[in-house]
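Saturday, quiet lab. Running sequence design on the structure tokens for the scaffold JK sent over.
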């Protein structure tokens, strides 16, 4: 394994995690923050990004939310719980890795919304005086992890 990589596929096909203690703590913390957002701030703009409208028609959208809303929310929560619950593991099963992928994506979407990330936002050379600097750095880190996880899942 390359030393700078945190996630790779082992020769036996398992997904191997190589995080430092502070990275594991950070991942736990951002999972807790998103869970809090899901639970306590349902009107937060970041959640609109996580749960975009499925229909233009307001009545159709309301019916869809009534039918699928709990299932969508529970799926996001399960993925976050899996990431938080396995963040100290050295290896992930394929199912856990898929949940990590969903959770990392949700975290990126929520943080990206808060940091006002757009397609043309440059994540290299973030200025320390940028009011969103910490969120942008976290977004870049989570994007880097997501890329590694996708590569690991695609390998072999």
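Result came back. Writing it out in full:
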């Amino acid at each position: 394994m390359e030393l700078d990589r945190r996630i790779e596929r082992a020769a036996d096909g398992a997904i191997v995690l190589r995080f430092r203690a502070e990275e594991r703590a950070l991942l736990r913390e951002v999972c807790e923050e998103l869970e809090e957002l899901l639970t306590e701030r349902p009107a937060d703009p970041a959640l609109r990004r996580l749960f975009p409208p499925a229909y233009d028609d307001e009545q159709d959208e309301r019916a869809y939310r009534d039918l699928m809303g709990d299932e969508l929310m529970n799926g996001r929560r399960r993925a976050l719980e899996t990431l938080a619950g396995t963040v100290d593991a050295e290896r992930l099963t394929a199912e856990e890795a898929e949940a990590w992928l969903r959770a990392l994506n949700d975290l990126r979407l929520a943080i990206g919304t808060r940091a006002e990330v757009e397609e043309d936002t440059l994540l290299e050379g973030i200025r320390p005086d940028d009011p969103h600097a910490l969120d942008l750095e976290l977004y870049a880190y989570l994007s880097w992890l997501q890329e590694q996880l996708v590569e690991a899942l695609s390998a072999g």
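Notes for JK: The chain has five helices and three strands. Strands lie at 7-9, 15-17, 91-92. Ask whether to fix the surface positions before the next round.
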